[in-house]
Amino acid sequence: MRRTALALALLVLVGCGIFTKPAERISVERQQFLNAYARARVLYQHLHARIEALCQVDRLNRETCAKAAAIDQQARALDAEIRAKIDTPESEVDWPRVMQLLEFALGLVL
Question: What domain range is 85 assigned to?
Fold first, then answer.
């Protein structure tokens, strides 16, 4: 009897996981968002400063330096967009845009 009850409970739990739709929205506390964004921003700025310093002393080739400059322009535009969202607390923050800042940082490294 216990096995049957356990099997039935397990089937119900597994069935709920299969047939329920995942939530379209996940709430994140504003402070958690600000912390995550600050980390992404600091990481990007640190990597950009290192690349820029290497470019100034001709330690990197021109293509890499040009790529870094283009990435920095995109990152600055993205930063302005994210900061505008932060300054308007009632607006929705677009997490994929924040993650794009990390992708820019990765672009500098690669």
Answer: 62-110
